[in-house]
Structure formats: structure tokens, C-alpha cells
Write a structure and sequence with these properties.
Rossmann fold; 12 helices; alpha/beta; 2 domains; globular; 6-stranded parallel β-sheet
Length: 340
């Protein structure tokens, strides 16, 4: 029986790792959770999910595998360390970086695999295996709403970064558009969003606009007909449902997006997207083939198969991972763990 540690630091990571947990259990193996820091809410743990409350408990658990939907994991935790990613590359700095933490990168599609493989080729202490993203297994298995929306539903999402967010810029425009009965608005933000921006949007709630806080955005993705976003990677999940996205000052605009530069362009862009012009929908399909060509809902199976192959020695490496002394010292200080 293999032991898998599910290592998370954000609430949205629950939905990323739960498809893997389900498959781990079905295989007769064991899974336990470690919640790093105060930005992940233990209340989101389910009754049948086990939490290891300290690094001491983690080391006593002796995981064979550590699954991490994030860029960092302490080196003093035992086990094969596997990066399964917290989201797609949305053009923000730091996505394609090797930090010396992981033994295996389970990439989502060709446009993720190629850059990571190029990095690993230069410093071959890790492996790169394309598996698809486990977080999307439930997305592709989830049934769409039984009844169509009575009116077009627009989902507004935004990243928290002040440099890349569109939420503050679009506030007054959304305040005006929520008075228009043509559309139903759903608003959901990154958990690190500026609390003042959150309060401003919560104050806009009326019969046409709802502000939603959740650890699982996937039902909202199925409900919405169109997304308004900026540079958040959640827009890429929405595109994979072959639905249009209007972006505000996206850093990587392309034919698969309707990108606007000024807030007053928003209403017209929404109308264009809801019309689903053929050139836009074809561009979305072509983009998805590079982003995540797996729509079978079996990415978790491919991740565990990749883990099994690495543990069996099928993908040997020619270098050891770097010691990462500075990063591991910071992790020890953060986690208050000083034992060997």
C-alpha cells in the first residue's frame, strides 16, 4: 500500500487533488492531507478526509509520494515530490521555473510540456510527463445544468495581483451593467483578492448580480454562458468547455479571446461573445488542443501511472536535486520545524 501526502496551501487546491484522492482510495492506497499556512481553511476538509496537523506527523506518516498543486514543497518531507500545478500558465511570471523542489512534473498539455522539458534537459534532476490536469477530471465528468439559463449568464472572475487584475477597473462599468436585465451576473474572485475590492463587489448584489465565495468553481463554469476575466488562469478552464471569454488587458491576447483595453468596451464585447462567431469558436478549439487535449476525465489515472513508472525506475535522472538550503530554511521557519 502506497501512502500519498496531499500538500496544499490554498483553498482551491482541494478541488485539484480530490480526483487523485478518490483514485488513490480506489486502488487500495492511503491518502492524508497537510495544510500549510493560514490561507487554507481546514473547515473545507470532509468528514472522511484525514489531516496531518504537523510536519512531525507528516514525517511519521512517511509518504511514498507528495502531490503538490503549487510551486514549492520542503525538501525535508520524505517521498517522491510531484508538481501537479495550481492552474494553467496565464502569462504571469514564474510559471516556467525549476525551483529544485520536485522529482516529477505532471504537465497539462503540449504548451506546458515543451517549456518544462526544455528546462529539465538543461538540468536533468527531474522528469516531465504529460498527463493532463487532475483538477479537470470532475469538470469533464460533471453534467451541465439540466435546464438552460433563462437569460445569458456572465461569470466575472479576476486574479488578485494588482498588476494583472481587472476587477477595480471594471467596477463602475459592472455597477451600471448589473441594472440591465439582459444578463445574470455571477462574481467569483481569487481568495487573495484585496478585501476592499471584494467588499465593493459584494455591495453590488441585486437581482441581476450575485457574489459567490466557494472552494469549487467548476459548477459555476458549467452554469455560465460567458466569462469576463483578466489574467487569471481560471479563464483557461472556461475555454476548455468551448465557451467564450472576454478579457480585460490580457497579457497574452490571441484570437481565442475577446480582449478589451477600456471598460466602456465591455458590453459590446459580451454581446459579441454570446453570439459565438465561427472564427472565435474555431480559435478556441485550436487553442484547447495545445492547452489540454485530454477531455476524457482520466488525467488522475495518468498522473498515478506516471508516479508508478518513476518509482519503478523507468525514468532515471542523471543529477541529484539541488540542496535548496535557503528555501528549506525558510520552510522550516514558516512551519516551525527544526528537527533533522
Amino acid at each position: 500500500m502506497k501512502r500519498y501526502l496531499l500538500y496544499i496551501s490554498q483553498n482551491y487546491s482541494y478541488q485539484i487533488l480530490r480526483p487523485l484522492q478518490q483514485l488513490i482510495r480506489e486502488r487500495g492506497d492511503d491518502a492524508a492531507w497537510f495544510l500549510e499556512g493560514d490561507e487554507v481553511n481546514p473547515a473545507y476538509l470532509r468528514a472522511d478526509e484525514r489531516r496531518l496537523a504537523s510536519i512531525g506527523a507528516v514525517r511519521a506518516y512517511q509518504p511514498d509520494v507528495v502531490l503538490v498543486p503549487g510551486p514549492m514543497v520542503p525538501g525535508f518531507i520524505p517521498g517522491l515530490k510531484v508538481e501537479v500545478f495550481h492552474g494553467f500558465d496565464a502569462g504571469k511570471p514564474g510559471h516556467f521555473v525549476l525551483r529544485g523542489c520536485f522529482d516529477l512534473y505532471c504537465t497539462q498539455g503540449p504548451n506546458t510540456t515543451r517549456p518544462f522539458q526544455a528546462l529539465v534537459d538543461k538540468t536533468p534532476y527531474a522528469r516531465v510527463i504529460e498527463t493532463g490536469w487532475p483538477a479537470l477530471d470532475t469538470l469533464f465528468h460533471m453534467a451541465p445544468p439540466a435546464e438552460p439559463n433563462p437569460r445569458p449568464t456572465v461569470l466575472l472572475c479576476s486574479t488578485f495581483s494588482r498588476r494583472f487584475t481587472g476587477a477595480p477597473h471594471l467596477l463602475s462599468t459592472v455597477e451600471r451593467l448589473r441594472l440591465d436585465d439582459r444578463w445574470q451576473w455571477l462574481v467569483q474572485f481569487h481568495p487573495k483578492m484585496d478585501p476592499e475590492v471584494v467588499r465593493q463587489y459584494q455591495a453590488l448584489e441585486n437581482t441581476n448580480l450575485r457574489f459567490i465565495e466557494t472552494d469549487d468553481i467548476q459548477p459555476l463554469l458549467h452554469r455560465a454562458d460567458l466569462m469576463v476575466c483578466d489574467n487569471s488562469s481560471v479563464l483557461l478552464m472556461f475555454l476548455l468547455l468551448n465557451k467564450p471569454v472576454v478579457t480585460f488587458r490580457n497579457t497574452q491576447p490571441g484570437p481565442h479571446l475577446i480582449d478589451i483595453r477600456e471598460p466602456q468596451q465591455l458590453a459590446g464585447a459580451i454581446e459579441e461573445g454570446l453570439a459565438r462567431p465561427p472564427h472565435l469558436m474555431e480559435a478556441i478549439r485550436a487553442f484547447n488542443a495545445e492547452l489540454h487535449p485530454y477531455n476524457d476525465g482520466r488525467s488522475s489515472e495518468r498522473v498515478l501511472a506516471a508516479v508508478d513508472a518513476v518509482l519503478a525506475g523507468q525514468f532515471p535522472v542523471t543529477r541529484k536535486k539541488p540542496l535548496n538550503l535557503r528555501r528549506n530554511f525558510k520552510a522550516r521557519r514558516k512551519l516551525n520545524y527544526w528537527k533533522p
